[in-house]
Design a protein that fits this description.
Structural class: alpha+beta
Number of helices: 4
Number of strands: 13
Largest sheet: 6 strands, antiparallel
Radius of gyration: 17 Å
Strand order of the largest sheet: 8-12-11-10-9-13
Helix content: 10-25%
Strand content: 35-45%
Distance between the termini: 43 Å
Length: 186
């Protein structure tokens, strides 16, 4: 049982659908580099200020030294949160004193695609592992299973093939275990 309720990781709850129907073309993606361990505090403030954002988090279960089970939700990309907004939203986020810097995203469509894939992988409940560096490999598309139409790179490991879903902007990603028959080369 978590000590605190899970913080929102998307605002609004249908963020990616809302982006598709967004008529205000002055909005764009910003990568926000936060102060250490401030991602969830910033997310809470952004919900209060009604600023659209995405903070991918992963459930982490552990035991205390006394043996009690605990659950926490840790940011998948520590130190980063993604805002979808205009320059006013960017400025208001900087006023929270939780932001070290706001980085411009040169290819917002690619980041949007990457974040959607990461969110779908998180929602699937699959076991994923954060990867801090992208490794070279064959670009593939998943042909069957719950991750059908995902795109990424296959990385050979001792435990078998895994699909690396990359957030290109951060040079980070997550990995999913797959069978060889589930992927095709692009």
């Amino acid at each position: 049982m978590p000590i605190l309720a899970q913080e929102p990781e998307l605002y609004p709850d249908n963020l990616f659908d809302a982006i598709e129907f967004d008529t205000a073309r002055d909005r764009q993606w910003f990568a926000v580099h936060t102060r250490p361990r401030s991602e969830k505090l910033l997310a809470r403030r952004l919900v209060h200020d009604e600023i659209w954002f995405h903070l991918p988090v992963q459930q982490h279960q552990y035991r205390t030294p006394k043996g009690r089970k605990c659950t926490s939700y840790l940011p998948l990309f520590p130190g980063y949160l993604f805002i979808y907004g205009d320059d006013t939203d960017r400025f208001r986020a900087m006023l929270t004193n939780r932001v070290l810097r706001v980085l411009d995203v040169p290819d917002g469509e690619q980041l949007n695609f990457d974040l959607q894939q990461v969110q779908r992988a998180l929602e699937s409940g699959a076991t994923i592992r954060p990867q801090s560096k992208l490794l070279p490999g064959a670009q593939v598309r998943v042909t069957s299973g719950p991750f059908e139409n995902f795109e990424g790179r296959v990385v050979k490991r001792q435990t078998g093939d895994v699909l690396l879903i990359a957030v290109h902007y951060l040079q980070q990603g997550i990995t999913l275990s797959l069978e060889d028959c589930q992927v095709e080369a692009i």
